[in-house]
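ENCODED BACKBONE
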Amino acid sequence: MTPRPAGIRWTPAVILGRAVRIAARLRKKGGGSAVPGLVVNRFAPGFLGSVLSSFPEGLVVVTGSSGKSTTTKMLVTILEAHGKRVFTNPSTANISQGLTSALLERASLTGRIDADMAVLEMDEGHGALLSPQFEARLVLLTNVMTDQIDRFHDSEKVVGMLDTIARRATERLVLNGDDAMLDAMAADTHDTALARFGVTAEVFDSLPRGLGYAQTTPGRDSEGTLVSRVDGRSASIRWDGFDHDVTLPARGVHYAVDAAAAIAASRELLGDAFESTTAVDAVSSVRAVFGRGEVVTVRGKRIEFVLVQNPASFQLNVDELEEGLDQVMVAMGSDVADPSYFWPVDASRIGRARIVSGSKADEMALQLLYQHVQVDEIDADLPAALDRFIALPEPETGVKTIVFTADPMRRTRSHLGLAQ
């Protein structure tokens, strides 16, 4: 049952959450962002669902194995460009305590947020657990991969969780029509109206096989919102029979698919108010979500961050690296339960890794060496490795590049004093 809308009964929870947030930040500058949500969820377990149900134009949920953060950011940007006031979770806090903490940042003492709608990225597992507490006007499903194997074990389990979330869609389900598992799920179990996004057959033929993404089938050229061309950070998205050129926040077909997903969802949400030129300009203005093709300047050095979270994203991102980079650092952390998970990836394009670091540095270095990548140094001490890497002279080709999994990404940003 969907909870009653926000009201004065949530005032104690909001006050408690804000007090916890202040205490957490006093204890650790820039840290403890999820702690207020954790406390409030225990103290007032109905708060999250109640606030999610209070937006006049409803809730939009973005979920799936990969692409959630970038797709969410693009969708929010498109909607705001059309004049909508949107609440979102910009820090990519997509589990229950993170979502509650994000709501507490903006909620009034009665638990209300001054916005037309909410567009929230949700983790598959937490979203499924939270699903009885909310109804979503629209649910967007990005893809299904054997991701986070220590949590989800196999893709069928992921499909089950996404199915649970998708059943909360009251108006529209938007999904990756090239993902055979999503398409079968929607066809078999849902009466909700469908909208699809994906890639054309020509673009599909260029994708790497055998890495999870190959569980898809060639794109339907005649339906949906489709990626028709990708060249680095330049892409074309096709809808209503016309191609529209967009600039992507980072290189690669996966970012173009995120753009197609965001445009498909915005077309459904805005209806006749959707303007193609406005959407194209909005997508082209989006900057990389932190860690995902983001370029930062630290200690006077430009560094590109490349986050890899599963074999498909690893392969797609490595394939987009500039050839001949002479300063690359690779880090694998405790978020990777089984390093052999990444062995199907051909990482040979890296060429030379100046330092391999993180708690799984030895395993990552072994894979690179087997793929004939030169490894200069292995050091599990990530902060020390980062300091030495940044201190290296300017690269002869490209920019300093750090390829990392999620745990070292967070640790890297913390060590370098960057926002989380």
